[in-house]
Structures are given as structure tokens and as C-alpha cells.
Design a protein that fits this description.
By secondary structure, this protein is α/β, with parallel strands linked by helices. It folds into 2 domains: 4-173 and 225-252, Rossmann fold (3-Layer(aba) Sandwich); 191-222 and 255-325, UDP-galactose 4-epimerase, domain 1 (Alpha-Beta Complex), CATH 3.90.25. It has 10 helices and 13 strands. The protein has helices at residues 13-24, 56-66, 80-85, 87-108, 141-160, 191-200, 227-242, 260-271, 295-301, 310-325; strands spanning 4-8, 28-33, 47-50, 70-73, 112-118, 163-169, 171-173, 206-209, 221-222, 224-226, 248-252, 258-259, 277-280. It has a 7-stranded parallel beta sheet with strand order 3-2-1-4-5-6-11, sandwiched between helices. A two-stranded parallel ribbon has the order 7-10. A two-stranded parallel ribbon has the order 8-13. α5 links the parallel β5 (112-118) and β6. It starts with a strand and ends in a 5-residue tail after the last helix. Bound molecules: uridine-5'-diphosphate (UDP). Uridine-5'-diphosphate is lined by residues 171, 189-191, 194, 206-209, 220, 222, 260, 283, 286. Uridine-5'-diphosphate binds at residues 171, 189-191, 194, 206-209, 220, 222, 260, 283, 286.
């Protein structure tokens, strides 16, 4: 199926990879992004409208011009630590901005939305793997800002007939196979880019946040999912809604957990050189283990991750960061 999709936050990491996948599947893509944390050069698979999701007039204008069949909504801030020190930024952008977008969609008669949610809405789970029924109890404002939207989407669905697919990502990782886009955060806080950048930039040493967790090697376990597998899930979710599917929610992970030390060792294997590191204290708010059950996405969307083995994740990230290391800076 195809049509036109408006992609908020399409200049960011997950958004830009999804734009590529949508475009390759035959969708016309238009990106709506204020470029506050996104990148103009990552918008390559459709036109860019520069605008803010808190700006209702800009949204009304974009929706009237583009007349999308659906909206894929990625525009959000995503740093857990920042959300703790500046919660207003997160509730205003992630929650209130999304409400402004939903109101504009209802007014324009656009009734299909794909929403980027997160495993951070679960907080610290009692057991893994986590299903979509695992109780949601976030432990930081970032997780709450996304969980509020999940609730608002249910209510807007009931009141206005807006159909949505909420996708709860586990740890998005890796990069486009052609390295046309990839992960670019400033500042970077994520494990895989930091472990790789430590090898490409002089003088950086990775800190492993805690080695005394109750896990197989004492370091945290996460479920790393290749960003192109995430993109494939979004494409399937668009098809699902376009075919008349009802509102739904899916975990997007692999069902397999990897420790921080296993990631470090994989980076060493792919790069052929040691990752300089030291063991530091635990990072506040880090659950010991987060692993998805992705059975529901397989059963309903037919989604099976194809590229999420750790070697492929690290190899594609490595290629991207090597290219990034030579990028001219303004
Ligand atoms: N981590 C680490 N050192 C770093 C960054 C992350 O040890 O400099 C660990 C972190 O504690 C977590 C895992 O790596 O267990 C993944 O962290 P990341 O920030 O990449 O993603 P998150 O799980 O927080 O979404």
C-alpha cells in the first residue's frame, strides 16, 4: 500500500531511517521538523517543511498543503537525564506538542498515526521478557511524557476516530546499510556510538555504568534492535492502518538481551582494536535488564527482525561513524 505520509521528526535518527524505508516502499514522504535536534542533511527521501509541532498554524498549513493519508510522529526529545533536570521541556514538547499535532490532524480529517513510544514507559519491570501487558510505571519524565501520549491517543481514538499504532522501541541501534543516514546526537550519550567514537577520536574513554547488577556479567542487559528493522515495523504499521486495522500497540525488540560488556567486546571484534574503558558507578534510573517479547508484532504485523544480530548492528554503526568522523563541521 502507499500514499502520502507526513513524518514529524524525520530529520532525526529513527525518523530518517523510516523515511528511507517508506520511500522505498512507494510512499510519498514529507518531513516536518524544526531542526532543533534534527539534521537537514539527513532529510533525503522527501521534501522538508521546517516547522514546530507546538505551532498549530504551521501544522494546519502543512496538513492542508500535504494532505497526508497518515502521520508518522517521531518529533520528540529523548534524553532521560535531561528530562529529569528539565521536565517542562519534555512535557511541553513530547506531550503538549503531540496534543497540538493531534488536534490539527482531527481538524484536517487525517485519521491515521504511527507513534514512537518507548520501553521507558514500563519503568523497572518485575520480569523479562516484557509483553505489551507488562504494567507501565515510568521512572523519569521522558517515560511519562510518552505514556501520557499513549493515554491521550486512546481517548482521541474513542472521541474522534483517530486510529493509531503505538510502537514501544527497545534500544534502537545500528545504521542504514549504505550509511546514507545514521545516529547523530549532540551530545551523544548512547553506549554503541560512544564505544565506537572512543576508537575514532583521541582521548575518549568509555565509562561502563556499573558492573554489580544481578546479570550474567554484572553489567546491564538491553534489547538492541537494528534501526532498519524498526523502519520495517513502521512500514508494516502504516500498511496495517491503511488496510483498516484498529488502534494497537506493539513492542519492538528482539527477545534477546545483550550486556554492556558483550557490546564492548563486539565493538572490539568489528574494529579490531581495544575499547578503552573504566568501570564507573551505576547511572541513576538504569534498570538491570530490559528485554522485549515481540511476539505480538510478529503475529499481527508479520514483523520479524532481520538485521538485529549484534555483529550487523555494530558493523553498520561502525561504517556510519567512520563516515561521520570525516564530516565537515560548521
Ligand atoms: N551505558 C554505559 N556507558 C555509557 C552509556 C551507556 O555503560 O557511556 C550503558 C547504560 O547504563 C545502559 C546501556 O549502556 O545499561 C545502554 O544505554 P543507552 O544510553 O545506550 O540506552 P538506554 O538503555 O539508556 O536507552
Amino acid at each position: 500500500m502507499s500514499g502520502t505520509v507526513l513524518v514529524t521528526g524525520g530529520a532525526g535518527y529513527v525518523g530518517s531511517h523510516c523515511c528511507k524505508a517508506f520511500h522505498e516502499a512507494g510512499w510519498k514522504v514529507v518531513v516536518f521538523d524544526n531542526l532543533s535536534r534534527g539534521w537537514r542533511d539527513l532529510v533525503q527521501w522527501g521534501d522538508l517543511i521546517e516547522g514546530d509541532i507546538n505551532d498549530r498554524a504551521a501544522l494546519d498549513k502543512a496538513l492542508a498543503e500535504v494532505r497526508p493519508d497518515a502521520v508518522a510522529h517521531f518529533a520528540a526529545y529523548g534524553y532521560v537525564g535531561e528530562s529529569v533536570t528539565n521536565p517542562g521541556l519534555y512535557y511541553r514538547n513530547n506531550t503538549m506538542g503531540t496534543m497540538t499535532l493531534l488536534d490539527a490532524m482531527v481538524a484536517a480529517g487525517v485519521d491515521k498515526l504511527i507513534f514512537s513510544s518507548t520501553c521507558a514507559t514500563y519503568g523497572v519491570p518485575e520480569k523479562v521478557p516484557m509483553t505489551e501487558e507488562t504494567p507501565q510505571s515510568p521512572i523519569n519524565p521522558y517515560g511519562w511524557s510518552k505514556l501520557f501520549v499513549e493515554k491521550i491517543l486512546s481517548d482521541y481514538g474513542h472521541a474522534h476516530g483517530l486510529r493509531s499504532v503505538k510502537l514501544r522501541y527497545f534500544n534502537a541501534a545500528g545504521a542504514d546499510f549504505e550509511a546514507e543516514t545514521g545516529e547523530r546526537h549532540e551530545p551523544e550519550t548512547h553506549l554503541i556510538p560512544l564505544a565506537i567514537q572512543g576508537q575514532l577520536k583521541d582521548g575518549f574513554k568509555l565509562t561502563v555504568f556499573g558492573d554489580d547488577f544481578d546479570t550474567r556479567d554484572g553489567t546491564c542487559v538491553r534489547d538492541y534492535i537494528h534501526v532498519m528493522d524498526l523502519a520495517d515495523a513502521h512500514k508494516r504499521a502504516l500498511d496495517y492502518l491503511a488496510a483498516g486495522g484498529e488502534s494497537n500497540v506493539f513492542n519492538l525488540g528482539t527477545g534477546t538481551g545483550t550486556t554492556v560488556m558483550e557490546i564492548v567486546e563486539a565493538v572490539e571484534r568489528v574494529s579490531g582494536s581495544p575499547v578503552e574503558r573504566s568501570i564507573g558507578p551505576r547511572r541513576e534510573g538504569d534498570p538491570p535488564a530490559l528485554v522485549a517479547s515481540a511476539d505480538k508484532a510478529r503475529e499481527i504485523l508479520g514483523w520479524v527482525p532481520q538485521h538485529s544480530d549484534i555483529e550487523t548492528i555494530i558493523r553498520t554503526a561502525w561504517n556510519w561513524h567512520q563516515k561521520e568522523a570525516n564530516r565537515p563541521r560548521g
